[in-house]
Amino acid sequence: NLLNISFASTTKGNTQIKLYDAAGKLVLQQTIEALGLNNVVLDVAKYPAGVYFLTISNQQGVATAKVVKQ
Fold this sequence. Notes:
mainly beta
């Protein structure tokens, strides 16, 4: 029920982490100050099993990943 995220950022600044359900509804949003290697843990226990899409965005761009919760 925990989603572990690791990513690198070469520029200091706010990073948006968003989780969307399969219908495209935003279900979780978090902003962190990121620089270098970052590890973030999201508690997804209250969300039902299914497919989700995770986006991480900052000044460098946007990365998207498919997440399957069982």
